[in-house]
Amino acid sequence: TDRFWLVPHFEKMLYDNALLAVAYLQAYERTGDAFYAGVAEKTLLYVSRELGAPDGGFYASQDADSDGVEGKYYLFSPDEITGLLGEETGSRFNAYFDITEKGNFEGRNIPNRISGKGAEGEMDAFLPKVYEYRKARTSLHFDRKILTVWNALAAAAFADAFRILGKEEYLSATKRTVDFMEDSLTEGDTVFVGITAGRRGPSGFLDDYAFHIHALLVLYQAA
């Protein structure tokens, strides 16, 4: 949302992340640069881990606000990180992700790799610990609609990931999503807009049919 590509849209949408994953997968496919594959895999991990619905499919989005503050969930101070990881490792983590006393967003910090300091991926081993800390610190609300178009985009992204990266977990994720769509979002020749709390929405529009078909075609090409 700014000219430096620092401040994100704090509301995390399923369709944005699915499309980002596809873009990075295509970049990797065309360049062979492992950085792009890594971004795609982290994006798909987010989709699976954060937006996956217990009964199948994916929720529409996560809210931007926590405790009434936009973006609070994603912001850090240097002291939080050194307190969590220790002074030496925490200081390296802060430098790597540009987490400073001054801050880069309303006095706090959006971790980022814009400066490119340090070898790419060298701090990845500490991300799970920071992730668990962030989850315990505060929480986000979900938009629990399960929309056909957005789930179809997610299914296609996982299918592309299997085709390009060859990992079976992505094929399994695609098949689970498509199976959910076939069971819950369609009936006969009718495709529905989505489902919320077990209740189907109205009959679908052109994009619901088009993206449903797209997901099936991408799965066919991948498998």
Which range best describes the helical content: under 10%, 10-25%, 25-40%, 40-55%, 55-70% or over 70%? 40-55%
Roughly what fraction of the amino acids lie in strands? 5-15%
H/E topology pattern: EHHEEEHHHEEHHEEEEH
Number of strands: 10
Name the overall outline.
Answer: globular
Mean pLDDT: 95
Main sheet characteristics: 3 strands, antiparallel
Strand order of the largest sheet: 1-2-5
Q: Report low-confidence residues grouped into runs of 5 or more.
A: none
DSSP helical segment count: 8
Helix/strand-derived category reads: mainly alpha
The rounded distance between the terminal residues' Cα atoms is 37 Å
Instruction: State Rg.
Output: 19 Å
Assembly category: single chain
Topology:
Blueprint: E1 12-13, H1 14-31, H2 34-51, E2 61-62, E3 65-66, E4 69-70, H3 78-85, H4 87-96, H5 127-137, E5 142-143, E6 146-147, H6 148-165, H7 168-184, E7 186-187, E8 190-191, E9 194-196, E10 199-200, H8 206-222
Antiparallel strand pairs: 1-2, 2-5, 3-4, 6-9, 7-8, 9-10
Helix pairs in contact: 1-2, 1-6, 2-6, 3-4, 6-7, 6-8, 7-8
